């Protein structure tokens, strides 16, 4: 049992070192110029250890990004009590948590913005926003959105584009406003659009 624990602990440490190495290298050079050897050397692990966890550098990048977005979803959609609502909106809490998470992990998300095209993360980001949209609607409305007026696929595209675009602008602009201000402003913008 202890061997199993030590193995799990070593695997976790190796993965953390590789993640750290990945972001350090992405800060320094283009994705296409990063090799598995660069990653293992920077992480201080052997290539065999790398291949025990990942098929190649693309698998590493996809898993790291998947984990990042999973953590973000868990953070955003942790249970909310009515006492946490602001301006009568549960949505405020989710939006605030989204921007707060981006702020706390700004360096990694800045690197993803810079290297996003090279890493081909569009599909991963899209899946994150689609799932988050569905979760958010269920949490805030307690049901699926009313598609009588506006088709659900159109609502989804609007919300995903608004949040992704605004978050990208916010990070690229150096976070000129607080997460609280961003959440309140997004609520206002959405309310104004629905009038």
From TrEMBL:
Pfam families (alphabetical): TetR_C_8, TetR_N
Membrane-traversing stretches: none
Location of the DNA-binding region in this protein: 35-54
Residue span, HTH tetR-type domain: 12-72
Molecular function terms from GO: DNA binding
UniProt KW Repressor keyword: yes
Keywords (A to Z) from UniProt: DNA-binding, Repressor
UniProt-listed InterPro entries: Homeodomain-like_sf (IPR009057), HTH-type_Tx_Regulator (IPR050624), HTH_TetR (IPR001647), TetR_C_Firmicutes (IPR039532)
PANTHER family in the cross-refs: ACREF/ENVCD OPERON REPRESSOR-RELATED, TETR-FAMILY TRANSCRIPTIONAL REGULATOR
Protein name: TetR family transcriptional regulator
Organism: Bacillus pumilus (Bacillus mesentericus)
Organism phylogeny: Bacteria, Bacillati, Bacillota, Bacilli, Bacillales
